[in-house]
Amino acid sequence: MAKISSTVLRPTEADRPQWPERFARHYRSLGHWRDEVLGELPREGATRHPAAVALVDGDRRWTYRELESEVDILARSLSRLGLRQGDRVVLQLPNIAEFVLGWFALQRLGAVPVHAMPGHRRHEISHLIRLTEAVAYVIPARHARFDHRELAAEMKAEHPSLGQVIVVGDVGARPDFVPFDALHDDTAPAIAELARPAPEDLALLLLSGGTTGTPKLIPRTHQDYAYNARAAANISELTSDSVYLAVLPIAFNFTMSCPGILGTLQAGGTVVLAPNPSPDTVFTLIERERVTITAVTPPLVPYWLKEYTESTPDLSSLRVLQVGAARLPDDIARGIGPTLGCRLQQVFGMAEGLLNLTALDDPEDIVCSTQGRPISPEDEVLVVDDQGNPLPDGETGELLTRGPYTLRGYYRSPEHAVTHFTENGFYRTGDLVKRLPSGHLTVVGRVKDQINRGGEKIDATEVEECLLGYPGIVSAAVVAEDDDELGERSVAFVVCARDAPTARELAAFLRQHGLAAYKAPDRVVAIEQLPLTPLGKVDKRALRSRG
Ligand code: J2J
């Protein structure tokens, strides 16, 4: 295996703004931030409950002792390959054990996983590698009828920083790619002077839903991410008896740490991976593994409820169904408990940080009509009008927040400091909410230029910019419209110099352009002229009402 040369790049102030010392001291003094790093989690589990099952993927299972041993071997092999502390590594894997094993091995080294979604393609991946100067890219050979090796070959040719491509499965015609299985090599030497990362170091980079044309990266530190998972696990009442089923992509912050995989492993429970979210797959796993908690987006709920009523599987082990990432309609919320016989937990989170959960013992009405309240007593929440003035409870305004696990700035993008943060360091979420006196929040809309397609976020500007490359499109605006199944879907209004393309033609064009498939507009409307506001900006509100 060829070595990659990489310099140790400690995260610097220039890469990411940090919490002012006054806040850091405060969060530490309260015990929210601890002297902990994510790579040590498997080792702690192996000490506390070595024989308990930590991870299940199909027929493969790992006890905590085995997880620790596997992570150690992988970390040594990655080190031998040339990976170093501070290196960024784009991780694009579906829900398979290698995601979890590889992720912890990178953490053990102090390397920084960059979470790509399985559906991301050339446009997104290229941006991630360029922005992070990633030294490695971890992929499946094929997934969802897509050959990731071809994309990786392109990326390697395009990006000089990219030294290694690691493939789960067959490397195909690329002997320079490293098979993931080859990393399972116990002869790799112990890592000599492996410096433990500091709790305040960069631990991972998450992708933002984005609203500015190019996806932004969210820096998360060891101490803030560990706290996020622990606080969520407390509210979801996880214990060593908990069995968490990962249905949504692991790369998603929701699945990873809210409380998700990290929260479950911190509590000494078992993580089970679902290869897809179909009721068939999921119900079989819940029965077989006696799953106690799982998490989904709203569009999956009606499918699961319908299938449950028709096939009545044994879901008696299931205590909690978390639903989040998009607004769950209140009437669907009310059907969950009575039908499935478990508690609904609403989840309103964001990769940027702030996480809101309903508690398991909140009154039924709160659970069904709000999206929960902040998980930390140190989460500061403001609801403001469009002048930035704080509003009283019950009034609708934009949600601003800062706290012990909410970012203070994006990774390597100081240009977003002013637009996305207040002078006092509050993050502008772009979400319109109402707050109850109890602190519970209801999400009622958004001011950001984004479409929430059943939980998948689409940055309107990013798609519009790509659409302008289509021959004949003169101008374009992408907005949300209501959809019975997804909650929202995307519609593109296009002004054309010739015949307007169909949605299918545009989807093919965008795919060629390298854009993830879920970003293609569901519907295309040809229009003479885009309506403008008095200030000369495209009037998206007018477009939405035409939809
Ligand atoms: C309405 N809108 C919601 C909800 C998120 C847990 C859960 C979700 C995410 C996530 C996450 C919503 N009702 N219940 O990271 O850890 C919209 C808001 C929010 C944006 C964030 C987690 N839950 N949303 O969805 O970074 O608009 O994170 O600002 O993908 O999703 O999107 P994302």
From TrEMBL:
CDD domains: 23DHB-AMP_lg. It is an enzyme of class 6 (ligase). GO terms for molecular function: 2,3-dihydroxybenzoate--[aryl-carrier protein] ligase. Gene3D superfamilies: 3.30.300.30, 3.40.50.980, Luciferase, Domain 3. Keywords: Ligase. The keyword Ligase applies. Coiled coil: none annotated. PANTHER family: LONG-CHAIN-FATTY-ACID--COA LIGASE, SURFACTIN SYNTHASE SUBUNIT 1. This is Peptide arylation enzyme.
